[in-house]
Design a protein that fits this description.
Layout (H helix, E strand, L loop, with lengths): L2 H8 L7 H10 L7 H11 L9 H11 L1 H9 L3 H15 L2 E2 L5 E2 L2 E3 L2 E6 L2 H20 L1 H28 L3 E4 L2 E4 L4 E4 L2 E7 L12 H18 L2 H16 L2 E3 L2 E3 L11 E2 L4 E2 L9 H16 L6 H15 L23 H13 L20 H11 L6 H12 L30 E7 L2 E2 L5 E7 L3 E9 L5 E10 L9 E6 L11 E9 L2 E9 L2
């Protein structure tokens, strides 16, 4: 099973270009078009435009690329694999060799067309499909004999021109048990494609990637690990997913997380007192839904996430987001129960007007059924079956129905891990109920004397905040850090507070070792593990 394939099938991709929608309507005349016909549709949808074969091309190619393997797994017709290889190779033919000798999908920078580049997510979302194909092929002797050469090419592409490339370019960062990729600060100019040039002025240069893009890279690593056995790939994926999980906000028996959070001091404008990017649960429903597929991939590989984590995520989708109506199920955003700041009548009217003007904030657009949980929960399956009861004349509708019947339902829902046979023992996160604080982190968490770390948080509502260092068990106060009042806010930017703190500033020297930083407010506290070196 392929995370990207499931994600495109089981999540409504609302941003699909009109060209693709038109192709899909044309295909609706046949319940099961031939693989060749679908290939032709996929190529038309993924033809590079005037901006070249950059990130936008990758998203268009990604939309159709997962169909080929999914259709084979559903109907066991190898013709889908034949045409899948043709489409994978078509996409590869649109790669260019950059000035540093590494291949990528290079085109206009999505945030500023005055620059030309390739990006992590473009590489990852396409090569992920190729690795999913390779994983299936290389496990089956008959398929390996027929498609093994193509599968090995895709594995090498992932090793050299995805993970190897972005590591060689210096975009990988580590902090203790955590790891993350940052966007590159190097581009070509449209009139000079012969050399990469550092251009810090380009928007989002050196910014840590949002969680969905981090996880795209992590899933590539997980598949490389499962295919090659190289533990270095597993370790990298583990650090990325550990970063994400360390930022979960726990409330009662469920959890919430943001689209983006700072990984290191470079993500914070210290002089302005703000983060370089907004922080909130993403308002587009396909973002967190896609991240659930990525989390499931990590869970099935025995990385980071525990059975308790999966139960909490199920609770988020079914207890917090779902309206409990099986005949007309609707879903809110996962942060729907978190507190909101008091507003004046004028502020409330302005907020309502902004919501009315935002199509992604309207009812039914903010949240949805997290189909990445189909492996684990019967209620999720029941609700998904209701969705499938609609029209299924087009390729995707028929494929979704048949995959659910022929593949998903063959295995009862459980918390069994697909790729791990031995028992998995993983550490639990630091759990504490705190609805008000949506972000709490120390950067770097591996603290060094004489080098201040940023003790960072974000509040949704006005709070009286106390920050302190506790021992590793969270039982004894070791040193106070700061007290202040934070105004709070829910717009993604407001409510940020941070202080630069150096353990060397404590009068009685804090011994080297493991500790917790604790942020305490009126409705609870959050903690973050840190280490202090000698």
């Amino acid at each position: 099973m392929n995370t990207r394939s499931l994600s495109f099938l089981l999540t409504l991709v609302t941003w699909v270009p009109c060209m693709i929608c038109a192709d899909s309507r044309a295909m609706a005349q046949s319940a099961a078009p031939s693989p060749e016909a679908f290939y032709n549709t996929a190529v038309r949808s993924a033809t590079p435009d005037k901006d070249g074969a950059g990130e936008q091309f990758c998203w268009r190619a990604n939309y159709n690329m997962g169909v080929f393997l999914q259709a084979y797994e559903t109907w066991q017709d190898t013709a889908w694999l034949d045409w899948g290889v043709k489409f994978y190779d078509y996409a590869i033919s649109k790669m260019s060799v950059g000035p540093d000798g590494r291949k990528g999908w290079i085109g206009a920078y999505i945030y500023d067309k005055n620059y030309v580049c390739d990006v992590h997510v473009g590489d990852a979302v396409l090569v992920d499909h190729m690795l999913a194909f390779a994983e299936v092929v290389l496990k089956d002797p008959k398929l390996k004999e027929r498609y093994g050469e193509a599968a090995q090419r895709y594995v090498e592409l992932a090793r050299h021109d995805v993970i190897g490339k972005w590591d060689a370019r210096g975009t990988w960062r580590e902090d203790g048990p955590y790891g993350a990729y940052t966007s590159w600060d190097t581009y070509c100019k449209p009139d000079d494609l012969t050399r990469w040039q550092k251009m810090d002025e380009a928007k989002n240069s050196t910014l840590s990637l949002p969680f969905n893009k981090q996880n795209d890279m992590a899933v590539v690593c997980l598949k490389l690990y499962r295919i090659t056995g190289d533990k270095a790939y597993r370790d990298k994926a583990e650090k990325i997913f550990a970063f994400m999980r360390s930022r979960f906000q726990y409330v009662d028996d469920y959890c919430v997380w943001n689209y983006w959070e700072p990984f290191g001091p470079w993500d914070v404008d210290v002089a302005a007192g703000e983060a370089r990017h907004w922080m909130n649960v993403h308002g587009y429903r396909n973002y967190q839904a896609g991240e659930i597929h990525q989390i499931a991939e990590a869970y099935h590989t025995g990385v980071v996430f525990t059975e308790a984590d999966i139960r909490r995520i199920i609770n988020t989708n079914l207890k917090v987001m779902w309206n409990q109506d099986r005949s007309s199920p609707k879903f809110a955003n996962s942060n729907a129960r978190l507190p909101v700041p008091p507003m004046t009548d004028e502020q409330r009217k302005a907020a309502e007007a902004a919501q009315a003007a935002n199509p992604y904030a309207k009812e039914g657009r903010a949240g949805e059924l997290w189909t990445g949980l189909l492996d684990f929960d019967q209620t999720v399956r029941d609700l998904y079956a209701l969705r499938l009861a609609g029209d299924a004349r087009d390729t995707r509708g028929k494929l979704a129905r048949d995959y659910f019947k022929n593949v998903t339902l063959k295995t009862p829902p459980s918390l069994a891990r697909r790729y791990v046979t031995d028992p998995v023992t993983l550490p639990e996160p630091l759990l504490s109920r705190c609805p008000s604080l949506t972000v709490a982190a120390v950067m770097p968490s591996a603290m060094k004397r004489g080098t201040p770390s940023l003790v960072f948080c974000k509040a949704r509502v006005p709070v009286e905040l106390e920050i302190a260092l506790y021992d590793a068990d969270g039982k004894a106060l070791v040193a106070p850090i700061h007290k202040t009042k934070v105004d709070g806010g829910t717009d993604g930017h407001a409510g940020v507070f941070f202080v630069q703190w150096d353990p060397q500033s404590v009068a009685d020297k804090v011994p080297a070792g493991s500790y917790r930083v604790r942020w305490t407010v009126g409705d609870g506290y959050r903690e973050f593990p840190v280490t202090i070196a000698q």
